[in-house]
Amino acid sequence: MTRLKAFRQSQCSAWFERTYGWRISQSSISPILSKQFDHLDSGPASNLSRHPQWPLLETPLWEWLASQKPGPTPSADVIITKAREIWNQIPEYQTLPHPQFSNNWLNGFKRRHAIQIRDREDGVPPPQPQTGRKQVTALKAFRGEFTEDDVYNMDETGLFWRKPPFGVSPAQDLLTTKRENSRVCFMLCTNSTGSDRLPLWVIGHTHTPEALRRVNLKAMDIHWRYHRQAWLTQSIMQEWLLFFYNHVGDRRVLLLLDSHPDHQAAVEATPPPPNVHVQLFPTHTGTPIEQQPINSGISQTIKHYYRRQWLAYIVACKGSPQNPVYTMSLYHTISWINQSWRHDLANAIIYKAFRKSTLMDPQIEFITAPEWLDLRSLYETVTRNNPDGRTVTSLENFIHPVDEDFEDVLNLGGFNVEGEPTLQDMDDAILPTLPEQLVPPAVDAVTGIQTAIRHLAHQPWATATDLQALERMGRMIDRAAGDEHAHIVETIRSPAET
């Protein structure tokens, strides 16, 4: 809004129509730019860092609301009706399922813009009242009883794992379009120093995707679960809680969770042992405490690294006859995410994220988190090579796709209907992957290790321990491959000898 005040009303109106394709009269601009809404530039609403669910809808809806005549704020039903009208005018959203504009969305809209909305007229109960600052103060005081290593946060986050930086192709069928929006859910949990990052839990649509059928997930330290919506459920949360209790053992720890109903129900159904204290973040407090650590830079950084890998994969497949979007598999996804979670995510990012929640003491100034990698060069390389002439998604929308973190992102209610993807479609590569492409031969693995050894042998920073670890791995693979080959030969020869 501060930026709009620098222009004349006619310029603001022209800018708004060019940006959103929706005309707003000059008479409506005056109240929007009046001092009545100055608090949005400097008050609590300006500091809420959580992204709106549909950012291209948010601005025109709010400006329509601000342009209304003085008096009572329109009811929730009126606002939702207007939201549906604006939605139908936004080209970027036309390939997405039409949203239901639930109470959760409405409550978030109210918090972001610090407004009061009359209750919905369809009998839906109003949201819970604000809990006030006392609950926040009590939680911060209780957190002080634990060392930094013993304070944990867990939250789930969605990922559109094969969504490219392009819109829909004119030649694309509905099935392919929806499969490009395939999503999985990751459960991320770490302590406030980053010294203890729990193994990833991944939730997909099906029991075992084809790309993971022969993968040793236990060796990768990844836990796969499934649900038709590819999102966290109470039963999965209960299972995860038992896993967490076992992980921390007898240590006295604090686990912070948001107040999602499935979290609450799972904690009630699976009470923690006496040494584990589970606390839910207060809701509707109007303070930054609502932004829990995982959502304050941790999950965003993981996704940023992932999309760098995804763009690099598309570039590497440039000369291939197959579309990389079609050959992309969930094995690539969990491998890249796991590596980023273990190695790329700096402890300083985790440290700062916990302090953004205001639960932890003020941050130490000299601890600086690394800057995000610049994806623009890779992004431009990919978008320049656009043989299908598809519309190009902006870099911002590619990095932060709409609806990625909302459980009702894809309605798969009508299965086996023409044009609708099945659950297996959503988890499998669009083009079938050959078995030999899924599992490289042992000889290729040994050759790769020998190449890595030669590379390290010429690096001044390499150590004897590094080289010896690779040599042991090469011998282990070679020996396992030899034993398997001997078993096959013996199996072939035995009938002939008989």
From TrEMBL:
Record InterPro entries: CenT-Element_Derived, DDE_SF_endonuclease_dom, Homeodomain-like_sf, HTH_ABP1_N, HTH_CenpB_DNA-bd_dom
Taxonomic source organism: Penicillium rubens (strain ATCC 28089 / DSM 1075 / NRRL 1951 / Wisconsin 54-1255) (Penicillium chrysogenum)
Domain HTH CENPB-type, residue spans: 45-119
A single Gene Ontology CC term: nucleus
Lineage: Eukaryota, Fungi, Dikarya, Ascomycota, Pezizomycotina
Keyword DNA-binding on entry: yes
DNA-binding among keywords: yes
Keywords recorded for this protein, A-Z: DNA-binding
Protein name, UniProt field: Pc22g22730 protein
Gene3D superfamilies, per database record: Homeodomain-like
Any matching Pfam family: DDE_1
GO MF, any single term: DNA binding
SUPFAM superfamilies: Homeodomain-like
